[in-house]
Amino acid sequence: MSSGTRTIWIDIDNPPQVQYLAPVATELEQRGFRVVVTARDNSITHRLLQDRGTVFLPVGHAFGKQKWRKITGVLGRALSLVLAVRGSSPSMLLCASRSGALAARLLGIPGFIICDYEHAELGSYTKLGTYVAFPDAIAPEIFRSRGFAADRLLPFPGLKEHLTFHGRNVAAEDTFLPPGLDPSHAVVSFRPPAAETHYYSPKSKAVYEALLDFLAARDDIHVVFLPRYPWQTEELGRWDWQCPLHVPENPIPPVPLLKGSDLVISSGGTMLREAAFLGVPSYSIFQSAIGEVDKDLEERGQLVLIGGTDEFDRFRFEKKTSAGTTSESAATMDRLLALVLTRAGLATPEDDA
Fold it and tell me: Are residues 189 and 298 in the same domain?
C-alpha cells in the first residue's frame, strides 16, 4: 500500500466537532496513518484545535444565519476544501459537515460522517452517498427511513463522547469555578437554545424564558451562562437576577467547566451529553424531536428531559459529590475505526508489515 493511500482526511466544521474528531485524528496518527485536518473558522474552532496542539489547514468561515448564505457557504467551502487537500491525495474523509461530504464526492473518495441525532437534516448526505457512523442506541431502520442504503450504515457501540474522552485523564485536568462563588451555592452551567438552527422549535423560546425567570429568582445558585449567540447575552438585562450570574469573556475548556458544574442545563447538544457522560447531573430543555441517544441516556438515569414549564420541579440544585469520571472508551474507538477503515478499503499500516 503506497503512502498516498494511507492519508486520511478529517474535516472539522464547528467547536463541538473538535471534541470528538481531534481524538480520532490523534488515534489514527498513532496507528501510523498520515492525517490531514481541515477546519472552518467558526466561533472558537481554531482556538480549540490550537489549544490541543492539532495541526490543521484553515478552510472557510462562518456562513451567517440566512438560508441562502448557508447554501452558498457550503458550496463555496466544498470547492475550497477540494483545492486544499487534493495535493495530499486522501483516501477517505471523516467529518460531520455537508461541505466536507460534498468535497469528498467531488474528489471521488469515500466520505464518512458521525451522527448522533437522527432528526438533523440528512438529505444531502443520502444524495452524496455518504456513509453514516452512529451510536447503536439508534436503530439502523431510522436511518434507512431517512433514505440511507443499508450498506451505508455503520452502527458502533457506545456514544460519540467515548471518542471525546478516549485516553483522557479527566481527574488530572483543572476545575473551573466562577469568580466570587459562595461554596454553598450550586454552580449551574446553562446553555440556551440554538435558535438559528433548522430544528429549532418555537416552544423552546417560551420554556427558555420561563426558565430564566425561574433561575433569576433563586438566591442559592451561581449561574454560568454560556451563550450560543451574542444577542442571548444582551437579553439577560431583562431579568432581575437574585443569584450571581457569570458570563465568561473567553471560552472555558469543556472538561474544567463540567468538573466545576454541579448541574448542567442545556437545550440539547454536545455539551449536555458530555456532562451526562461524566456523571454531572444533566437536564435537557430541548423542545424539538428528542433523539434516541438522549432517550437512552434518560432510561439509564444519566439525563433528565424537561418537557415544559410544568416540569421545573424536577431540577435539583444540589452540590454534586463527584468530580466526574468516564467509562471505558477503547472499545468504541476501536470499533468505529474498524468499521470505517474496512469500508474504505484501508488496513492499518502495521497490518501491512
Answer: yes
Asked if 10 and 91 count as a contact pair (C-beta separation under 8 A), the reply is no
At residue 272's C-alpha, the angle toward residues 217 and 176, to 5°, is 70
Calculate mean pLDDT across residues 254-265.
95
287 and 335 housed in the same domain: no
C-alpha span between 104 and 99 (Å, rounded): 9
150 and 58 within one domain: yes
CB-based contacts of 29, cutoff 8 Å, min separation 6: 35
Let me know whether 82 and 154 are in one domain: yes
**Is residue 145 located within the same domain as residue 178?**
no
List the domain range (segments joined by +) for residue 16.
3-168+328-352
Has residue 325 got a pLDDT over 60? Answer: no
Task: Report pTM.
Answer: 0.90
Whether residues 294 and 343 share a domain: the answer is no
> How many CB atoms neighbour CB 34 within 10 A?
17
User: pLDDT tens digits for 168-206?
Assistant: 889 899 999 999 999 999 999 999 998 777 677 889 899
Give the chain's end-to-end CA distance (angstroms, integer): 10
pLDDT > 70: percent of the chain: 94
What is the H or E stretch that residue 80 is in?
helix 67-85
Among left, alpha and beta (phi > 0; psi -120 to 50; other), residue 149 is beta
